[in-house]
Amino acid sequence: MAVEVLPLPLPPSANVEMFSGADFGREIKGVDLGALAPEVFREIEELLYKHSVLLFRDVDLSPEQQYALAKAFDPTSDSFGHGNKKIESTKSSILHATLRGIPRVPQVYLVGNGTSYDHEGFPEVQLQHPSHTSWHRTHISPEDQEKGATRFVRWHMDAALYDLLPPKVTTLYGIKVPKGPRQVVRYDDGTGDELEVPLAATAFVSGRMMFDIQPRELKSLAVRSRVKYAPHPYVWISTAKAKSTGMGVETEGLEVPYDKLPAWEESKILVLPLVWKNPVTGELHLQVHPWTVAELFVDPLPRDAVRENAWYPDGAHVTDLKEVRDVLYRMQRPGIAPELVYPHDWREKDLMLFHNRGMIHSVTGTLRPDQIRLYHQCNLAASDSPDGPDADDVRKWA
């Protein structure tokens, strides 16, 4: 059976022109993900990098098969994106309560909500759905939550961002999907922005789209910039609080001081481009984890570039944390406008395969303990660094 490629169904809120321009998302049929022939995998790989996210429905996939699928995109990688069993052993990480590795396949993790029994080697496992009430500085009132108000919890890419390189792809497989009425994501940032979403939807935004909508002066800044992530970043931010949009952290001096973090080495800190180049299309994706960046490096403008309205025309090393976060928020907040967000309406046995180096995502939703959500997630720390803009890109946009 030939691979069938269909448009990804978009919600009424979506700006169809923008999603079409970014060539975002496809539904794939006629594929057995547990037994991909090499030529079929190559087709899937090209489709993924071209469209950023691929949806497969009614999938039967064991943890071993899910690991093999992720590994096919990066054959020399064998560690979960945060390291095998490292999240479980780092209780001070913000991720500790939300992820559990499957014992026989430690590269595949359980994510979800509530208590599940006799699942993949766990007689009993309790999972906690990420909540804005745990991580955000401000909260929606319990009364409004009861009425269906919720937030984006945490916009991010899947990556340890210390010692291990960001995974190329993530596979997310829905085993048990909670049922309930749709909810309304509130941005609560003074804009009045809201987005109706299915219960516990995973929200995706395109890094390509985020770059494309930048004004010229911010495209110039983006192609000239690199970000430096903090050591043990998820411990570093564990005592800080996030913005109401889920797009980054408020700067209140609440981060764990570097000398109070677990032992770390300067050589393991990651410094990565702010813009990453798609390996298939050559398009540029604005790709940065807004929660965990500590510093910003900006190269000076090329000699023949227009300096009018340019940001940091002579280059800069920005170490003021509030300034760093304000610059990134200025770039990234427009990219999560309601019309640019794809909130996936999960069905059981859906598998979402997404280009983790070309987009960011966030969980949504407020769940009760009896609303069981059980997914398998697999991404692998990459064997190589992402490519940033090349000389032609800098000449074009700087």
Overall average residue pLDDT: 95
CATH class of the largest domain: Alpha Beta
List the domain count as a whole number: 2
- For the record, the CATH architecture of the largest domain stands as 4-Layer Sandwich
The computed structural class is alpha+beta
What share of residues is helical? Answer: 10-25%
- Overall shape: globular
* Proportion in β-strands: 25-35%
Q: Give the helix tally.
A: 11
The CATH topology name of the largest domain reads: Double-stranded beta-helix
Gap between N and C termini, in Å? 47 Å
The beta-strand count equals 21
Low-confidence stretches: none
Q: In angstroms, what is the radius of gyration?
A: 20 Å
| Biggest pleated sheet | 9 strands, mixed
Describe what you observe in this structure.
InterPro entries: TauD-like_sf, TauD/TfdA-like, TfdA_dioxygenase. The chain has 398 residues and is α+β, with helices and mostly antiparallel strands. It has 2 domains: 233 residues, Double-stranded beta-helix (4-Layer Sandwich); 131 residues, no CATH class. 20% of the residues lie in helices and 26% in strands. The chain is built from 11 helices and 21 strands. The strands form 5 sheets. Strands 1, 2, 3, 4, 5, 6, 8, 19 and 21 form a 9-stranded mixed sheet that branches. Strands 13-12-16-17 form a 4-stranded antiparallel sheet. Helix 2 links the parallel strand 2 and strand 3. The radius of gyration is 20 Å and the shape is globular. The mean pLDDT is 95.
